[in-house]
Every structure is written in C-alpha cells, then in structure tokens.
Hints:
The chain is an alpha+beta fold and 218 residues long. The protein contains six helices and seven strands, in the order αβαααβββαβαββ. It has helices at 17-20, 45-53, 56-62, 68-80, 146-161, 177-185; strands at 34-38, 84-92, 103-112, 130-136, 167-170, 189-197, 200-208. A seven-stranded mixed β-sheet has the order 1-2-3-4-5-7-6, sandwiched between helices. A hairpin with a 2-residue loop joins strand 6 and strand 7 (200-208).
Amino acid sequence: MNRTPYVLARELTDLPDHIRRGPAPVLPEFVAPFSLRLVDADSADPETITEWMHRPHLLETWEQDWDTDRRRADCGAQLAGTYSRPCILEYDFAALDRPDLGNREVAYVELYRPAKDEIARLYDAEAHDMGFHIATADTNLLGRGVMSGWIGLLGQAILAAEPECRRLLADPDHRNAPIRKALEKTGWQHLGDFDIRPDRRISLYALPRTAADLPETR
C-alpha cells in the first residue's frame, strides 16, 4: 500500500541548488556534565520524547501532543534528510551534588539548517548556518542556570565543530520569556519579532562568529 511521505512542517523544499546540497547539521561534542546524542528512531527514544511533550510546560510551548507513531515518523524523516537532526541531551546530576540521580536524559534538542527552514525568509541565510530548538523535560533543571549554561556551551561547540558556520540562529515563540532570557544571558543578539505564520510570532536571535557575521533581516 502506498503511504504519503512524512513532511517536516517547517522544511522548505523550493531551494537554490547550493542550499539544497548543503550538509546536514553537525553534532557538536560536549564534556561532562553534558552529553548530546542522536535520537534512535527505532528504539524507545520516540516514546520518551512523546511522554515529555505531554508534560504541561512543554505542551504549552511546543504544542506537539503527538502520539508515538507520529514522533517516530518525525524523527525518522529528520534523520533521513539534511534539514535537521533530532537529539537527546543528557546531564550528570553529580554536578548539582545529586549523584543519586545519576546521568539522566533531560531534554529534546533539534539542530537544524536555517537556510532550509521557514526562517530563511527573514534574512539572507547561508548553507552552513545552524539553528536549534530545545525542550527541557526535567523541571529540576529549570531556573537554576543549568540550561542557559548549556546554551552558552552550544554556541561555542557548534562554531568549533564547523569552521564554515558564520552564525547560529534561534527562533523561540515571542512569549517564551525563559528561553529569551537564556539567549540574551549567553550573548545572543535579538534581531526582532516576526509574524512567520498567521498563528506564529517569533523572536529571532543570532549568535555570530564575529561582529561582521551578524545577519541583517529583510
């Protein structure tokens, strides 16, 4: 039986050749207490992410109350292409003097190429630009500077992993005050708020490699 191919909602398909041929997002490396790995779509990872996304604080900010089958299809589609990569962030709670909690999976992360994303309509995106989304599942880490600390490490880790990358982009919902505060705390620059769809208004942020790499919006 023929099945309709799974379509990633934000991925652009009408792209210039140099953007379409651009590489998949890099996977940066971290040292303890953080580690980042790709989602295994054929494992229990989609079930874990599904449970996380049904937690009240993530239902409000991500609005992805999908079932496991859809989550598995979404992760599989990301891994099959070059637009984005689904990841799981792990954290060693010994860093918070809680060794009893061990090393735990704490967040879902998507790394993506903005040039292949709907935000490319907002600025002159380059093929090696990188972006990210994060859904922190473990509320024990919220409000303690842990996740903003990781966001600070993420920028440097990506720039180190990919010399061709001139800047990182982030596009949280304009009402998401915690993530906006975390970005501004770690050096990201606010480029403005934009209505990217009738039902979606974002705050666009950039972290340039140098001052000359800060993009201009359209």
